[in-house]
Amino acid sequence: MSKTTKQKTSIPAGAATGRPRSGTGGKDLLDALPWIAPVLALIVGVVFFPAGVMFYNSTRDISQSGIDKGPVGFDNYLEVFNFAYFWPIFGRTIIWVIAVVVLTVLLSLALAQLLNKAFPGRQLVRLAVIVPWAASVVMTTMVIYYGLEPYFGIINKFLVDIGLIDTPEGFGWTRNADTAFAWSIVIAVFVSLPFTTYTILAGLQGVPGDAIEAAKMDGASPSRTYFSIVLPQLRGAISVAVLINIINVFNSLPILKVMTGSIPGYDADTIMTMIFKYIQNQHKIDVASALSVVAFVIVIVIVAIYVKVVKPMKEV
Amino acid sequence: MSTATLPEQSTHAPAVPRPPVKRKRRYTEDQVSAGKVAWRMAAGLAVLLIFILPYLIMFFGSVKSKSEIRSVDPTYLPTEWRWENYITMWSTPETPLVQNLVSTIIISVCATLLVLLVALPAAYYTARFRFPGRMVFLFLVIVTQMLQPAVLTSGLFRQFITLGLSDTWLAMILVNAAFNLSFAVWIMHSFFAGIPKEVDEAAQIDGASRLTVLFRINLPLVWPGIVTAIVFTFVACWNEFAASLVILSTDGNQPLSVALTKFVGQYETSWHYVFGVSIVAIVPVVVLFMLIEKRLVGGLTAGSVK
């Protein structure tokens, strides 16, 4: 901020259109540095540098107490891939991401449709939909974990009361890897709905009303109107929502950690929970780094697709 | 995490407020039968109930007695309301909850302030001035937006050990700030870009300095963007879990999100306390989020904190 006098020499760009011409001279860069350097420092220091540390550690032999014993080439990667449960975990990660994202988007499309219509109390419903977005995922997951507990869980009790379960003590949902994983998908969809619904809701605002009016005049049925007029207009909003959700769901740790963390074995793990098992239970930071690199590469590929499909830079 | 693309109408939102109500009407039939409205209200009520149900269970559980919440014949509503749980819960033996709350607050507040301090100048400058590398800079910001602490935790963990920052609040303040920076830069950038440059020029002709223009003329106009950035960042930091889980090893340093997981798998989990603390942790951020609800519908959505 103390460099005010310098900035006066910079030429204000055509900011109103958001398309300043690209600059030349190094002096302009020097002028810009005090304003952008803190951001660069944080990004480089806390995002890129740890990524580098991670790559480096993935090729080292690091003892459980954290002492670096030298290079081991790709041994850590071999340990990751040769682990008997690796491919099941890999497959489960794909199921996890696809199931959660597909269910989330389909439900959000319906939800956004409802929230876009006028009815008394709509504002209240919209506010309620935000709650799982703001609330801690850990805490949301814990209340459902409690609800599913045998004997005293309230969701179990409800399922018994309406006759879906006939054992009075309820069902051991959280004691079995498959059912705990299935419920984790339900929770992940639940906490992903708010963001997705709001993104689609924002997209619906951009659908021209006269196009819908015209379709109606032509005698198109509501479903026909939706699929041929509204849905194509939502393409942008849906692709943003899908890609952000893929990243979030892939990176999600707390739901599976709470729901399946106390189940022995590796029958409900994804790549992300496996990384944390390597770090926390086995204290193998070198192997954890190797698996993190694998995860990182997957994320980078998704980001590349995101940049290509959504073209976020076009509006700069 | 947050999206980078902002719908075009958002770019002029601060300077030229448009009437949002009119736009919503466009996609709503003018004449709707009473039956349709009733159907929508019923569906709306169902949605409302489903979305707040877990938190209702949480609330009712938080005022039950320990014997009631662990009863083999569970009750939907508390038979006796134990409000004193909200006082006794803070001295539960599983984890030092008061310290966890303090830790959550300090990390979230400091990280949010750091984000604001660092992102605001960058957002302003990139929106107002051209310089070589500007696009590269903005591209870097967008890319980091897609990265989350979870995937980099093993690297962060080793780096902070090397720096002697492992198990410190400072480490988590830096992590939270770095990973939420991009959204803040992006949203404030779009607000600054939405102010016509004529506004700046007119002020400068009147003899205002660059800093005067920034603080007196621009900041009031981008204020909604700043509030949105603050709320998003704060809520994301408040709920952060993965990196804190590994980097903060001492019980007292951990935020509530990490501390509460220690109750799971206990022989006798004090669920009523877990829920009491959860309610205390959830209500403030939900209220904050509701304050910016308009901005979410308006298309500045750009984000989710999960």
UniProtKB/TrEMBL annotation, chain A:
The chain crosses the membrane at residues 35-56, 94-115, 127-148, 180-204, 225-250, 287-307. Residues 1-10 have a biased composition (Polar residues). Keywords: Cell membrane, Membrane, Transmembrane, Transmembrane helix, Transport. Belongs to the binding-protein-dependent transport system permease family. Residues 90-306 form the ABC transmembrane type-1 domain. Pfam families: BPD_transp_1. This is Sugar ABC transporter permease. CDD domains: TM_PBP2 (cd06261). It comes from the Bacteria.
